[in-house]
């Protein structure tokens, strides 16, 4: 697996593990909570700091942040209560978080109107010093969640806007536009911390970087990501709202980071790559946020979510179905019934309503699936539903862009190209550079048991053999066995013994043999 120069949040991106309980009342009384009015916003006078600072929940200048809370779902993240109507206290309350927080999704999955887990909730007023005034609100519906292009989830809560207002929680507005590149920003979230006393709302003052970028991370693609220099984006930070320093409006949600990813394979989970004019590159000191500008158009005059509104910029989920899992990393040639041939896309497409499809392929950095330019002529699904084009030989990431429609001529029945389905493959011809890791345990009778450690995608499979040092040649392929994740026994009477290890990456590239001798 090729590494670029060492120039994505916990687990996958900036999320925590499973949900966990958090002490506090089911609802706080209005008397226990501070007034939910809108005090002067604390804009600060510094551009950036050396990390996040724990917020004081009793300081009235932080009252706006009561609307930001801990999301307990499939993963532990941050969520924010957002304004969806001008003045309707009867409107349902909605919270935003990252799409991977309710559930890790595939690169093209779009979840609509789904039942949440029975324990999904958002805990508001989540400051370290407001334990008795926290407000716990169950999630009643996952209105929309996706990691397709944008990492975003919209959660319907079991309270109205007015009910949360009486508990001191006022919604935060969605910004109408993005701040200028290089503008100072604030990020407020609840990253998980090893110290329970610090595991609450924190604010970091950062700088937004150059214009939007497109990312590749594992088999996901993220469009229009907003780079920044925030350094304290970690487990639990996903879904943290991002504010321009001089605004009280949210323009993005924290999504992923490349910080702290040294030693991880480029473009793999937790080490996102930016697509560049010539390929891809890791920016090791960058964190990224998902833009939410325009999301207010998905709520009607009463403040209820409505995906069908013309102003709503979200994917409605209509897309071709593709048989087979992600292609992942591959070599450009494969063996097919004993015959060596080029790797092909070999994607079979179908749909219950679409009758036709169009597609185009190309390098990820140079192929805009959201642009109709380059798509081929419509193909009838009942005439040819399999795409067999060869995948290029050169190393890199490649896209297969797919659009479906109900007419032999592209018209309004066709899928919006902004929401094209994207199949991704990586061509990798570079052998693993990382050395195998081993754990050696004592074995009954004075022998040893050797456990091999995996580092996917760089070292995803092993073969091994054991023999006398003088007669065991690790370079000879004979005698190797597959390592089945069972520790290798080396009996005392076999000493001295040579252990030969050959590693393979996910594309099947073979590392040079590694030898270890036990005396």
Please, what is the average pLDDT? 90
Number of helices: 1
Amount of helix: under 10%
Helix-strand makeup class:
mainly beta
Taken together, the total number of domains comes to: 3
Just give the CATH class of the largest domain. Answer: Mainly Beta
- CATH domain topology of the largest domain: Thrombin, subunit H
Region (Disordered): 22-55
Protein name: Serine protease
GO molecular function: peptidase activity
InterPro entries: Peptidase_S1_PA, Peptidase_S1_PA_chymotrypsin
Features of this protein?
519 residues; mainly beta; Thrombin, subunit H; Immunoglobulin-like; 3 domains; 11-stranded mixed β-sheet; 1 helix; disordered N terminus
Description of the molecule:
With 519 residues, the chain is mostly beta strands. It folds into 3 domains: 53-298, Thrombin, subunit H (Beta Barrel); 321-427, Immunoglobulin-like (Sandwich), CATH 2.60.40; 437-518, Immunoglobulin-like (Sandwich), CATH 2.60.40.10. It is built from 1 helix and 35 strands. The protein has one helix at residues 161-166; strands at residues 53-54, 68-72, 76-82, 92-97, 110-114, 121-124, 135-146, 152-160, 173-174, 184-189, 202-207, 213-217, 220-228, 241-244, 249-257, 273-275, 280-281, 287-291, 321-323, 328-330, 333-336, 339-342, 347-350, 356-363, 379-380, 386-387, 396-405, 421-427, 437-442, 448-453, 461-467, 481-482, 488-490, 497-504, 514-518. Strands 1, 9, 10, 11, 12, 13, 14, 15, 16, 17 and 18 form an 11-stranded mixed beta sheet that branches. The chain has a 6-stranded antiparallel beta barrel with strand order 2-3-4-8-7-6. A 5-stranded mixed beta sheet has the order 20-28-27-24-25, with no helix packed on it. Strand 2 and strand 3 form a beta hairpin. The protein is globular, with a radius of gyration of 26 Å. The two termini are 33 Å apart.
